[in-house]
User: Which sequence fits this backbone?
């Protein structure tokens, strides 16, 4: 007799596998594929020697070694909380007091993904509304689906989320009586995943003004995902959205050491209002009673000795070169294909490629053609939510140059152009040799 069926929770039934899992599995099955899919970091640049030295110094003495190997607090290592606070405030050119902040407003998490999930548990009930950019970080969309939240998307342009459209959406929700369901506005405001676009300074300030203005019956929070902030390759750093929240009421600033240091440390952090911090810590205590303590000690030591800042500077050069290689390859391979267009990001990991007239979706012809040609990308449709008619744009690709070598980047774009030719009937014109 077969066992009785499992009775699962509603949250479990709402939670599906991430769309990126398929592409990661394909890359694992075939190492010869050039993967522009998963947002992984450059392996050759991981700070092995810096981490080795930091760990050796920690474990060289019983007192520091025992402290690092002991349990820590749910909120995180106090020294690391102080470092994070100074790191963010220094980048914004302010003192913590200017933003009504202390280290008590910092929480250390097991990567930024844990923080995003905890915020969801604190804020969202089934049927609540979260407003995001269109497109947006698709893993966050999966998280929202798990919580039963509804995603409403606001269009982007070259300056990021269109705050005029956001304002119009909030007005419509107010008129329809649905404003009470709006719990948060989510933005990846530096070199956005997936488009590589950054939110302009004027719109950062406007975002906080709108959250404040429409927080009538309840407070609408802004969740600022700044995971890529330290990977800027051109131009000056932009002030955070948090910089425009001097009372520490409306903005949760979330980031991670995964992108600018090492994902294996699995250490993220957030700066948040006190009345958000308290329930987050209650839930985090139920999750883990505190993130990995050894990793926190290593991260704190890397920052204190200057190795973290030095490594981030080296990484900027590595990724700047890869971005330039990808853009140059796109210009060479798609010069004769006017349906192709892309934006050149000022930082981050991603180039957003648009192929007018080509179905780039998961069920379209380009995905299998790309696999046959030996290259992977993430369909842009993964970052969109369906409109009222159930449609999403299906002519976009997210290309990640994080893990591929420069040589693989060039080859991968060549293979992608071959795949496009297979599904479009076009062939790349080759100049005759003279």
Assistant:
């Amino acid at each position: 007799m077969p066992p009785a069926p499992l009775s699962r929770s509603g949250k479990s039934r709402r939670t599906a596998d991430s769309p990126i899992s398929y592409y990661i599995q394909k890359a694992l099955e075939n190492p010869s594929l050039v993967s522009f899919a998963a947002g992984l970091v450059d392996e050759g640049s991981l700070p092995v020697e810096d981490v080795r030295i930091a760990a050796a110094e920690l474990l060289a003495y019983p007192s520091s070694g025992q402290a690092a190997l002991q349990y820590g607090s749910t909120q995180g290592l106090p020294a690391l909380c102080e470092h994070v606070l100074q790191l963010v405030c220094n980048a914004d050119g302010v003192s913590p007091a200017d933003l009504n902040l202390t280290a008590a407003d910092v929480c250390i998490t097991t990567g930024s993904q844990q923080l995003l999930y905890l915020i969801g548990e604190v804020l969202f009930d089934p049927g609540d509304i979260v407003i995001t950019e269109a497109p947006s970080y698709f893993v966050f969309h999966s998280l929202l689906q798990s919580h039963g939240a509804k995603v409403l998307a606001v269009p982007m342009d070259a300056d990021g989320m269109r705050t005029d459209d956001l304002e119009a959406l909030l007005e419509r929700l107010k008129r329809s009586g649905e404003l009470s369901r709006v719990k948060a506005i989510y933005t990846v405001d530096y070199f956005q995943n997936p488009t590589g676009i950054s939110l302009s300074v004027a719109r950062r300030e406007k975002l906080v003004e709108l959250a404040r203005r429409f927080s009538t019956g309840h407070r609408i929070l802004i969740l600022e995902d700044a995971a890529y902030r330290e990977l800027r390759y051109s131009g000056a750093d932009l002030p955070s959205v948090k910089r425009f929240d001097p009372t520490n009421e409306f903005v949760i600033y979330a980031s991670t050491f995964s992108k600018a240091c090492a994902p294996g440390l699995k250490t993220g952090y957030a700066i948040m209002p006190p009345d958000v911090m308290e329930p987050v810590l209650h839930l985090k205590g139920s999750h883990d009673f505190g993130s990995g303590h050894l990793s926190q000690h290593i991260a704190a030591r890397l920052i204190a000795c200057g190795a973290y800042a030095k490594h981030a500077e080296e990484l900027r050069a590595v990724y700047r070169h890869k971005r330039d290689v990808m853009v140059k390859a796109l210009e060479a391979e798609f010069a004769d294909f006017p349906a192709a267009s892309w934006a050149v990001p000022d930082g981050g990991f991603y180039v957003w490629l648009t192929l007018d007239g080509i179905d780039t979706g998961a069920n379209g012809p380009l995905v299998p053609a790309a696999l046959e040609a030996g290259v992977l990308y993430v369909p842009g449709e993964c970052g969109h939510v369906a409109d009222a008619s159930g449609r999403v744009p299906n002519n976009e690709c997210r290309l990640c140059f994080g893990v591929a070598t420069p040589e693989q980047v060039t080859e991968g774009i060549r293979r992608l152009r071959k795949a496009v030719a297979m599904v479009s009937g076009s062939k790349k014109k080759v100049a005759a040799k003279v």
Summary: Residues 322 and 406 are 6 Å apart (CA to CA). Residues 307-333 form the longest helix (27 residues). Residues 48-305 form a domain with the Aspartate Aminotransferase; domain 2 fold (CATH 3.40.640.10). Residues 430-434 have pLDDT under 50 and may be disordered.
